[in-house]
Amino acid sequence: MGGVLGQGFCQRRLLMLFLLFLLIAVGSPVAAAYVPPPVDQYVAKDSCLRDFCRYGKQRVVESTRLFADKDIGSPVVTTLPPGTIVYQITSDVHSRPAKVLVTKPIIGESGHSYAEGEVFYVLMYSGHNRYKVWHRGEIFQERLIGVSGLIERQSGAVIRPAYTWAVALRPLEYTLWVKVRTMDGLEGWTNEPNNFGRHDSIDVILNGRLLNFQSRPLLEKGTVLVPLPPLIEALGGVSSWDPANGVTTIACQGVTVQMISGASTAVVDGRAVELPVPARDINGVLFVPVRFLVEIFGGRVEWDQELKDLTIKI
Fold first, then answer.
1. Which of 136, 170, 197 is the C-terminal boundary of a domain?
2. Are residues 180 and 74 part of one domain?
3. Do 58 and 183 belong to one domain?
């Protein structure tokens, strides 16, 4: 009898232990997957460094090679001369992570604690003293102030803050690869993001050639206005201004147009024609509606809203 009772007690105990195991297994949160430290290389796809998050329209300021892939050993797609307009599509950050030794215990802004003597890795800069870091098998954002030698200046000198709680055993090194598309559809990668300048202004392209204006074109009520002198010169015409009555006379392609700043109409070969917007005098330069003039002279105009490009064919 006692053996049977003892056997039943053991069975119940095993059942309780099994149920307890199931409860713990089901009810406990799943631990975050351990991520090994990216010692030699870290790649952040579709990412950018804060100073170079400039997706959209760009102007090339220095001659730049575009590669077929994110590797200078890959084929060269094309070489972009200065002044070329491109559209930045995306960018990847390739870094050699900084290996950092903790010299004083601290709790970071993220809530993670760093113990004296342990090592963590800084993967990339995110802006405002924030970095993506690897620590104890996790990758997260951390604000790093007080880490000596983390960033190396171009001069070779490293930044050493007044107060330090960690020392970089090697500085953070990174390359930003930027993918761009040219206006004729070519796409490629470059590791020279400094060769591009932010370009939000309107570009006027005449028969495939970019026109240069000392004063930036304007967009007013859906109409692009540009300085008259460089436009009419590029079109092969001439213009003159009569200060007595404020009339500007433009002659091109056998057509004569007269305009007055602020007037809603122009005179084309002796007849009045309504303007989409009036011409405007800005700092002594007459800004005129491009489409109106080009079409009067027999040309065609196309507007690209995305790139803010106005293309003239005449």
1. 197
2. yes
3. yes
What pLDDT, in 10s, does the model give residues 219-237? 999 999 999 999 999 999 9
CA distance linking residue 155 with residue 44, whole number of Å: 26
Please report where in the chains the tokens 């804060």 appear, as a residue: 50
Q: Return phi, psi of residue 3, to 5°.
A: -65, -35
Are 163 and 131 members of one domain?
yes
Compute CA distances 125 → 48, 168, 250, whole Å: 9, 14, 55
Q: Give kind and range of the element (H or E) at residue 288.
A: strand 285-289
- What residue type is 204 in one-letter code? V
Element (H, E) at 291: helix 290-296
* Cβ neighbours, 10 Å, residue 271: 8
Token pair 């996790």: residue: 138
Runs of H (alpha helix) within 186-243 = 228-234
What is the band of 22 on the pLDDT scale with cuts at 50, 70, 90? very low
Highest mean pLDDT among 82-86, 147-151, 257-261: 257-261
The Cα 61–Cα 63 span in angstroms is 7
Q: Using an 8 Å Cβ cutoff, are 100 and 119 in contact?
A: yes
* Number of C-beta neighbours around residue 80 at 10 A: 22
Number of domains in the chain: 2
Q: How far apart are CA 125 and CA 143, in angstroms?
A: 10
CA angle 234–230–257, rounded 5-degree value: 80
Which alpha helices (H) appear in 129-254, and where do they start and end? 228-234
Contact (Cβ atoms closer than 8 angstroms) between residue 209 and residue 311: no
Please give the residue range of the domain that contains residue 259.
203-313
Dihedral sign for Cα atoms in the order 5, 11, 16, 17: positive
Query: Rounded CA gap, 61 and 52, in Å?
Result: 15
